[in-house]
Description:
The complex is a heterodimer.
Chain A: E1 3-5, H1 7-12, E2 19-22, H2 32-41, E3 46-49, H3 61-65, E4 69-74, H4 81-89, E5 93-96, H5 99-111, E6 116-118, E7 132-135, E8 138-143, E9 148-159, E10 164-165, H6 174-177, E11 181-192, E12 211-213
Chain B: H1 2-5, H2 14-23, E1 31-34, E2 53-56, E3 60-64, E4 85-92, H3 95-103, E5 109-112, E6 116-118, E7 123-124, H4 139-145, E8 148-152, E9 156-157, E10 160-161, E11 163-164, E12 179-181, E13 185-190, E14 193-199, H5 205-210, E15 216-217
Amino acid sequence: xxxxxxxxxxxxxxxxxxxxxxxxxxxxxxxxxxxxxxxxxxxxxxxxxxxxxxxxxxxxxxxxxxxxxxxxxxxxxxxxxxxxxxxxxxxxxxxxxxxxxxxxxxxxxxxxxxxxxxxxxxxxxxxxxxxxxxxxxxxxxxxxxxxxxxxxxxxxxxxxxxxxxxxxxxxxxxxxxxxxxxxxxxxxxxxxxxxxxxxxxxxxxxxxxxxxxxxxx
Amino acid sequence: xxxxxxxxxxxxxxxxxxxxxxxxxxxxxxxxxxxxxxxxxxxxxxxxxxxxxxxxxxxxxxxxxxxxxxxxxxxxxxxxxxxxxxxxxxxxxxxxxxxxxxxxxxxxxxxxxxxxxxxxxxxxxxxxxxxxxxxxxxxxxxxxxxxxxxxxxxxxxxxxxxxxxxxxxxxxxxxxxxxxxxxxxxxxxxxxxxxxxxxxxxxxxxxxxxxxxxxxxxxxxxxxxxxx
Lengths: 217, 228
């Protein structure tokens, strides 16, 4: 059995300056209640690793608006003018990573790989300062793994063991991030008895999940 | 039947011309990724007899039309965040699988917007230093990995050429793209340079050359483009 805790109690686990892997794509499949609890607790200096920073007032955009984020590692910030403005003013440091590279760097961090070799970004700004490795005559960029102190993931359903099932385009980065952090906090839309999610439906085995957020009031 | 031949080209917007021409490149059974904005219009002009799977890189193969008002699923969107449906036979996938398909050569075609394309066929479409830094999102993976890359864009930006000798904006990839489709022309990057293949509806070769910053190879016969 996993412990179901309140969003506020989950936010208490997270210290100032933590590195957070946060699931979601333009706030679809983001752990919204968890983000609200972080905003309420006002823990700052965070590093956020996520596909994007959504829009102002939505999903991860709330953390940006609240000024709690010092560093962002993302593939896209184009729909959040606040992130762009804070990047230009120097308030937020932004590392832009191609989307496919970002997810594989996180996966590498989660599955014990020392990095990945990808042709994406060869000959572009992305390759600057990175080691190029030639394999069978083709150049690849060595991209290093990413891990987080915490992964905050959203799922459609969890069972009491923390097995997670996702829905449609709300999968995105969630199942990958659930592998790559010291502490994994899952925010499911529903919590169901053990056995309701069939083994074939489990995309994240409960063994990697540390906490579930309790059901919404 | 004659009515089909007489499409009202005069009232067509440049973007519609581009989308209708790109639609002719898509073949039965392909897996196709359409970028946000103009490229996404291409889906509107595919005849129902051509069955393809559209990929949205945020996690669906088999993207469908917009759902009826009030019936949207917040967990089913395209890469621009717009509500979509999934066609029968669709698959939902996570981001690692999605980009594995893109990089791994499983994606037949991507249609992307462009800021600049140059004589080498290189594309720049992800940032304007000091002005616009949205991030590359999935563009670098798509251009590096898709079997065929079509750049769908208006020919020039407020009088400034977008087809240039060499990109001055940061490149998206150093891969030669497959085809440039604008409202004025269809241009194919080749070993010899940029080959003018087709003219837009009612467009002269002189007009194309005047709007193009790069050197174009102009064959003797440059037919007018046929639109879907």
